[in-house]
Amino acid sequence: MAEPELRSPLAVRAAALAISGGVGALLIRALLVLPKDEAGLAPLVKANLDASGVKNPVTAVLLNFRGYDTMLEIAVLVLATIGVLSLTIAHSDKWPTVAEHAAPALSALARFLAPAMVLVSGYLLWAGEHAPGGAFQAGSVLGAAGILLALSGYARPAGMTGFALRAAITVGFIVFLAAAIGDMLIEGALLEYPADHAKTIMLAIEAWLTVSIAVILASLFISSASPVEELRRRIRGGR
Amino acid sequence: MTQADLYTVAGGVLFTIGLYGLITRPHLLYKVLALNVASGGVFMVFVGVARRVPGPAPDPLPHAMVLTGIVVTVSSTAYALALAKRIFTETGMATLDSADTMEGGEDAAE
Q1: N or C: which end of chain B has fewer CB within 10 A?
Q2: In chain B, which residues have their Cβ closer than 8 Å to the Cβ of A66?
């Protein structure tokens, strides 16, 4: 097995330097001539914040004004996860082993930290309504708790394979899509929340998004974490 | 040059470094890393641009875009790593060099 070349030939590097340097110079030039003190869409967001049902402008943009973007983004996450799972654990129903057994200190620390991380995640989800926070931050913390447990030799969720895993990965997108279609039937437009229930609907979407994002992030990590030999064995065994 | 401009320019420079790495490094792991450096540059541009609005509060729109962008970058990185690992598992090579792929391709098709 030949060691892969870590560097390209000099001619390639010179050409790449010219291309990336040119693109970079144009990009920076374009960024610097952007008009200063231009309010952009910020006043529009501010003017409609009361109608959005939440007090945090970032959450209002994510879940209400540009909810369509966020919904498609979750679709991207789900697709990427399905891709990773089919490349790694699809041939077996067992989770790859990340850590056989952890050092006592790490395992004790994980036991203390994991419940606190679940609590912080719940707080971030609730705080997203009026302060920085929301489904993405909450999901990241919850997913990190799952990764910490996996690294400490804990997480071997035997029941979290097959249907249960796929359901947890997709539930956020499904709830988002159901809310979008429901709004279309009731209000006549995609993701046009009924004014009285906007906050409730957004919180419900965000809660399920948190679950999905956490499971997606944790399974992306855990399913990729097995050694190459194990992956090779599993692929060969599946054929 | 304001502080926001500094962030914007630094973001542009990071993107350039990432682009250069993406072209010149044949090893797939380096390519994934280079993509991550480039997306870090894009996020910094957005953070800088969000500060251009008058008043103390930054523009929430670029912030929302960065937030979704980070999550998409994480998932695309994971997918790229899974692909790279699968390529290594099948061919024993961590590059997309045509000669290597041909050799490994026959090997894996057994």
Answers
A1: C
A2: 61, 64
The DSSP bridge partners found for residue B95 are B27
- The string of pLDDT tens digits covering residues B34-77 is 999 999 999 999 988 888 777 777 788 888 889 888 888 988 99
SS3 of residue B51 by DSSP: coil
- Count other C-beta atoms under 10 Å from residue A195's C-beta: 11
CB B75 within 8 A of CB A220: yes
The answer to whether the CB atoms of A31 and B64 lie below 8 A apart is: no
* Residue A43: HSE in the Cβ half-sphere, 13 Å Cα cutoff: 7
For residues B104 and B90, is the Cβ–Cβ distance under 8 A?
yes
| Ordered domains of chain B (ranges, CATH) | 3-108 (1.10.287.3510)
Which of B33, B88, B80, B90 lies closest to A4, judged by CA? B88
Q: Go through A202-212 and write b for each residue having 16 or more CB atoms within 10 A of its CB, e for each that does not.
A: bbebbbbbbbb
The answer to whether the CB atoms of A21 and B75 lie below 8 A apart is no
Model ipTM value: 0.80
For residue range A50-101, list pLDDT tens digits in order.
777 788 888 888 888 888 888 889 999 999 998 988 887 654 555 666 666 6
| Percent residues over pLDDT 70 in chain B | 86
Q: How far is A66 from A55, CA to CA, in rounded Å?
A: 16
Q: How far is CA A179 from CA A135, A192, A215, A226, B38, in A?
A: 16, 9, 21, 37, 35
Q: Cβ contacts (< 8 Å) between A39 and chain B: which residues? A: 53-54
In the DSSP assignment, the letter for residue A239 is -
Give CA–CA dist B42/B13, Å, rounded: 10
Q: Is there a contact between B78 and A232 if contact means CB atoms under 8 Å apart?
A: no
CB within 8 Å: B20 and A20: yes
pTM of the model: 0.81
